[in-house]
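[Meeting: bench + compute handoff]

Bench side (C.D.) handed over the final construct sequence. Compute side (W.E.) agreed to return the predicted structure before the next meeting so the bench team could plan truncations. Sequence as handed over:
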Amino acid sequence: MKRKSTKSNKSNSNWCSSGNSGTRVQIDSDWVVLDIGSGHNPHPRANILMDKYLFDDTERSGQKIVLPSSKHIVVGDAVSMPFKDKAIDFIVCSHVAEHIDNVDSFCKESNRVGLRGYIETPSRFAETIRHPPNHRWIIEKKNKTLTFSPIAQDYPLGYMGKLFFSFYFYKNIQAENRNICSFARGVRKPFHYFFWFIRWSLVRAWLLLKPLTYTRFLWENNFSWKVFNNGAE
């Protein structure tokens, strides 16, 4: 596909809500947009949805994948994407990077395939107080660099972390009855409504505090990254 320009045309662009944080990013109407790991909440502006797992919902905490018929669906891995160099105008990658095993391959592929993009993950603060066991990295941004630091698979705050996690993800736990955290399983009315109210309050507070609760990284042309293992690069 030929492009008139790699730069954003402000007269032909729209502000699109992106990521769990709802951060608004500017996307041209004629751009090819790829959603990496689109999962259960695909980006509405994406032309192409790519996900590695269509049937295994472990990394989605039990939530079923959504595959709109109006989108082009690709089964693929973020560390080895089936696209030509710079074939994608804009990459959306929301709450995927913290699940990746091979960080170097993921970052190299994103730079190779995309002209620009938006990466969102939980912040260090978020991972400390409600760390899902399937998250592998604490991700932070330092100017144009993303840093990846390994995180323990257990809850950093122990029982208090489990309690916070149970409240925050109560909807997922009840819907799927998964053993994500045993604290919230089997809760019955009237405690059910109490849990829902606490969860609703936490989610709203999480969005209001998004500079603290999310790592939000907008990049163009390419970005750099550093991986720290046991305190060293």
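W.E. noted at the follow-up: The helical segments are 103-113, 124-129, 159-168, 170-176, 191-208, 210-213. C.D. will use this when planning the next construct.
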